[in-house]
Amino acid sequence: MKVSDILRVKGSALYTVTPDRPLQDAVQMMxxxxxxxxxxxxxxxxxxxxxxREVISTLAAQGGSVGGKIVRTVMDDAPLTCTPETDMDEVRxxxxxxxxxxxxxxxxxxxxxxVSFYDVAKAVVDAQDFENRxxxxxxxxxxxxx
Length: 146
Hints:
Helices cover about 45% and strands about 20% of the residues. The protein is built from 6 helices and 5 strands. It has helices at about 5-10, 25-35, 50-60, 70-75, 90-100, 115-140, and strands spanning about 15, 35-40, 45-50, 100-105, 110-115. α2 (about 25-35) links the parallel β1 (about 15) and β2. The mean pLDDT is about 90.
């Protein structure tokens, strides 16, 4: 299974923010959209990721306030990325290795989407469920010996 398979099922909604945006605005957007990450884009290029991990770290360091911080000062400026052709096993390995919950998908320099650890887990479970149904159908239809 490839990343493109997940994006095809997931849809094409992309949520981005610019690095000079106030962090408070980004947090508000994440809350309203019920999402855990925003892709940080500048001049059409991916420059970072803002996830709830960076937001919580900032809140902890600032006594529960984001203050006047801007996205650039707290974002992950070197996020893991993959391509639509990346195999799901490789994505799982990369995410587990770096403890990443979100991964932007780039085709050359174009943002195609974001896959989350949830998306990856759901794809694995769906594939296993399909395989189980096929095996059960095969066993149920097993020809009897004469």
